[in-house]
Amino acid sequence: MAAGNAAPDFSVAGKVVLISGGTGGIGMAFANAFAACGATPILTDLKPPPEGTPFRYEPLDVRDDAAVRALAAKIERLDVLIHCAGRLIRHEEHQPEVFADIVNIHLTGNMRLATAFRPHLARTKGCLINIGSMYSYFGAAMIPAYAAAKTAIVGLTKSLAVAYAEDGIRVNAIAPGWIRTEISRRGREEPAFNEKVMARLPTKRWSEPEELAGTAVFLASPAAQLVNGVTIPVDGGYVAS
Ligand SMILES: NC(=O)c1ccc[n+]([C@@H]2O[C@H](COP(=O)([O-])OP(=O)(O)OC[C@H]3O[C@@H](n4cnc5c(N)ncnc54)[C@H](O)[C@@H]3O)[C@@H](O)[C@H]2O)c1
């Protein structure tokens, strides 16, 4: 980095950004934001993007080791990996097999992708962005697997930041607040749950996925070169309140 009074470099132009869960609400908002900044998103997901989506799409189940390795072999260059795939199943996560499946998607899936793409990121001195949640900070009676995995993402982010530093790879996470997407739909539509969230939330509104994108772009940019191993709540002040 040049000394002096140069403006911070927030540029991500030319970077290739692979997004798991990329056709979901937050994944697609990230893809659009990175593309608008001159980067090239690659979407991976269980479900294909809508017709006409202008980005490369690779089908992927993040629970499938062989499929993750096969995708890594197909991708030539990667600067930014974002693990956005996610699912929750209200009331059912106390069943051990459901618990294991949800943890597999969020946590083991994160590790699986990180391991498969570490060599790519090492070549570009790239970065990994993981996705936590408000449930990284407190418990959730209805979705214990989701909350356990999201809490563990904070620890995994620190561990991988330390482990990958020798390759020049930075690892951080975003903990989104209450965002209007499919995964949160049932909670939003349930008056008692909605009221409880709004009572604590300083901004008093559900947020749009686009409101997270600036933080993702920042974390991927040279301006964040010293930011490593942290989970940043982007939550309208919920954790603080
Ligand atoms: N929306 C919120 O309020 C909120 C808050 C905190 C954290 N998050 C997290 O943000 C991330 C993105 O969620 P979203 O809000 O965009 O929800 P979403 O439901 O719109 O997107 C999730 C995407 O993950 C995909 N997916 C599920 N299982 C998968 C698998 N096994 N392999 C590959 N893809 C799979 C789904 O097909 C979907 O496209 C998730 O990790 C979620 O837990 C969301």
UniProtKB/TrEMBL annotation:
InterPro entries assigned: NAD(P)-bd_dom_sf, Sc_DH/Rdtase_CS, SDR_fam
GO molecular function: oxidoreductase activity, acting on the CH-OH group of donors, NAD or NADP as acceptor
Signal peptide span: none
Domain of life per record: Bacteria
Pfam families according to UniProt: adh_short_C2 (PF13561)
Family the UniProt entry places it in: Belongs to the short-chain dehydrogenases/reductases (SDR) family.
PANTHER family (alphabetical): SHORT-CHAIN DEHYDROGENASES/REDUCTASES FAMILY MEMBER
Protein's name in the database: Short-chain dehydrogenase
Organism: Falsiroseomonas bella
